[in-house]
Design goal:
This protein has 261 residues and is of the alpha/beta class. 38% of the residues lie in helices and 28% in strands. Helix 7 (153-163) crosses helix 8 and helix 9 runs parallel beside helix 11 (237-247).
Amino acid sequence: MSEPFTIFPAVDLREGRVVRLKLGDPHQQTGFGDEPLAAARRWVAAGARWLHVINLDGAFDEGGAANWRALPGLSQLGAHVQFGGGVRALDDIARALEAGAQRVILGTAAVENPDLVVQAIEHFGAQHIVVAIDAREGMVRTRGWQKDSGLSAEALGQQMKALGVETVLHTDIGRDGVLSGVNAAASAQLAQKSGLRVIASGGVASLEDIRRVLEHADKGLAGVITGRALYEGRLDLAEALALAQEKAPQVGQNNEDTGVM
């Protein structure tokens, strides 16, 4: 059976609060509530089967203890959780999985320490590891998107594929948090060039963006992440999920229940 196309509501956390950043800039932050569980329950009630939870403090090397404390509760709401932000070591991955996350995202660590990716797949299995490829104008950035890695998105994708990675998250930083439209074409190109399953992210503004990503589902796009559009009421999650079900009928209940995307 084909693996399902998935829409991931984003729950981005700073000091335990739900926020969205513009262009990944910690100085351009909008708050959307002090209760992560309340936000997540809203998305699960609308039908979300996955939540995309990011420890933004960790991404900026600030720890994020309150965000880690929120993870067990978020993992018990009836949806699978993919969790990232500041994950730098095998112990961090184990901690997230033990707290209930189904998958863990490696970003900066995957670029700076590819051996960690190999070890993570050996220890936990490729189905539990996702690599974040965060790019501005095609070039990968790390350390909370503040540092230029010198690698192109496609080069990093090919490297990760060779290491055993199966799924990556591709964010067009120049579109993230500003509702400018998802760069589905770039995400699809990454999928085609690397052979990876790619989750698109950054810029989702409306149902039309979901439709645009779905048009590339047969080219390796496995899903899409949406945040600000949901929180500002520009996108109805239930409507988006219904569209995905209609356009990607390969979505299977068995796959969802096992946590395999």
